[in-house]
Amino acid sequence: MAGLGRGFESLIPTEFDDDFDAEFDVTAKEDAKESDLKKIPISEIVHDEEQPRKEFDPEALEALASSIKEHGVLQPLVVVKEDGKYKIVAGERRWRASKLAGLKEVPAIVRTLEAQERLEISIIENAQREDLNAIEMATAYAKLKSQFNLNEEEISDRVGKSKSAVVNTMRLLNLPDNAKKAMVEHKLTEGVMRPLIGADPELIEKVLPKIIEEGWTARRVEKEMAEKKKKSSVKAVKASVYAKQETALSKKYSANFRVRGRSVTITCKTDDELKSLLEKL
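Above: the chain's sequence. Below: its structure in token form.
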């Protein structure tokens, strides 16, 4: 996540697996008007009693505290001003870890309760728009989850979509940046892009131009990825079947042995090593 030196939109935090890009956040400009980024004394921050998450892994907190000691708090908290204190909306884990790290103050995005409510309504209204692309929609869902403590079922109720639809759309945020941008620029559908989620970034980069230029359907993409996955699995199995034998032979003869299918490849670093190997064989 960006540091304090960048623009406000880049500082909008998320607890989602993959940070959402500010360019896909349809409420970023409105958020910037409603919010104030500042450093706040930890002593003035209180946790939300209604926060659904009650348990925090001690070891994970210690690990985060160590990271904060070294790098600082890279992702601001989101808080609302209430009764002279700042109540945490998002980032309680960072707040707890910051206390463990001995920090006296932390960066936070401050909103009023009214602004928080307005922003939630705005995000929900935007998420219901028919003209949003799937990445913008996924970003809206992720923002509702990370900054308003809504789970997938609550989000689905508010936007009028099924829980599975919300979950599947949010998963698109795990695509590489180039895939997300291509999806928006070339109006690629969610169905076409979903098979790419979790795939190797290099493979996605090779497949994307074909999807765009040849207008691949969702079924065509699924078939292509299934075939690539199958070939990759077969290759991995073949490579590992004789792994122990390869290691043993390489050590015994001081040369690199590789077994692929029914072939054995032997590589020596120098002519002397080759000569020595041939004498041993």
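The chain has three domains: 8-168, 176-238, 242-280.
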